[in-house]
Amino acid sequence: MTFNSTLNLIQTYEAGKPIELVVREFGIDPKEIIKLASNENPLGASPKAIESIVKNATNAHLYPDDSMFALKEGLSKHYQVNPKEIIIGAGSDQIIEFCIHAKANENSKVLMAKTTFAMYEIYSKMVGATIIKAQSQFHNLEEFLELYQTHKPSIIFLCVPNNPLGECLGKKEIFDFLGKIDSETLVIIDGAYQEYAKAKDTSKAIDPKELIQSFPNAIYLGTFSKAYGLGGMRVGYGIAKEDIIQALLKVRPPFNITTPSLAAAIEALKDQEHIHQTTQNNLEQMKLYEDYANSKGISYIPSYGNFITYLFENPLNSTLIADYLLKKGMIIRNLASYGLNAIRITIGTKSQNQRFFTLFDEFLGQ
């Protein structure tokens, strides 16, 4: 059977390994497995959100409110934007897909960082668009501007903070850059990890209201999968001027969020104390990873997300490290598929992180 030829250009996205796979392959008790691979919240979701999931599970036979009125109202109040300036997706990556299908085609070019979220490239290639990648390892907006002026892309992606590396552009440099971009270019500001970035450094905080009022060609993406701890519920959102949202709604399938997912996101948004606890744990435990790396002479990228990237030189090898940890029941993310001799570790609880340090010491002692 033949398929769309554009599939030949696409490399399958490699998600973080699930706990179930480690149980099957190595026979490890699932209670002994620690997953620090997918940037999930180690504290879990708000108890209020969990309660709402259980309550709304009895309505599983009913379609959700397709207008998503209550969640949009909550986000509207949280960000001080109009509900008509909000779209909800099954994770923010679905909204990335909406943006690509609404704006790009085989004649389009899409500009992104050299190392960034893989789905930007995958969704772009699905419609036949040409990928333009910066050569700098981190977001270099001077280089981005040169590439923009040369290629005139239809879409520009800025991941703030950047996944999987963790570096983060500041608000001022982003706004200065946006001021030089034509109004016909859609600029996607991916703020999946913004809750962590602004807790660490307010100069990195992007206010969606200020963003779209200043730059009507920009869209801000947020998610409930990271700081809100609802990765399994798959809820994300986009905030943009109404004309952009109306275009995206034309490619949104009906009932793209489940009833329990909607209920969980509504309650999670109300519990900002849980977000505070989450970001504080992240800041405290991140320091342990930095101190550990410094003590071992390991290079790392200062991170504004809920993960840290360790960079290795020979004889240390990221694949050998990841495989060793996996066999011990510790799942982290090997970045070899990005062409990097590096691993990305989600910041966990204190006990989870101590287990990582113990296992890494064992590996180094071999």
UniProtKB/TrEMBL annotation:
Pathway in which the depicted protein is active: Amino-acid biosynthesis; L-histidine biosynthesis; L-histidine from 5-phospho-alpha-D-ribose 1-diphosphate: step 7/9
**N6-(pyridoxal phosphate)lysine (modified residue): where?**
226
One Gene Ontology biological process: L-histidine biosynthetic process
Gene3D superfamilies for this protein: Aspartate Aminotransferase, domain 1 (3.90.1150.10), Type I PLP-dependent aspartate aminotransferase-like (Major domain) (3.40.640.10)
EC nos: 2.6.1.9
Against InterPro entries, the record matches this protein to: Aminotrans_II_pyridoxalP_BS, Aminotransferase_I/II_large, HisP_aminotrans, HistidinolP_aminotransfase, PyrdxlP-dep_Trfase, PyrdxlP-dep_Trfase_major, PyrdxlP-dep_Trfase_small
Q: Which reaction does it catalyse?
A: L-histidinol phosphate + 2-oxoglutarate = 3-(imidazol-4-yl)-2-oxopropyl phosphate + L-glutamate
- CDD domains listed in its UniProt record: AAT_like
Per the record, the domain of life is Bacteria
Q: Could you tell me which Pfam families the record lists for this protein?
A: Aminotran_1_2
Quaternary arrangement and interactors, per the entry?
Homodimer.
Q: What is this protein called?
A: Histidinol-phosphate aminotransferase
Q: Which gene encodes it?
A: hisC
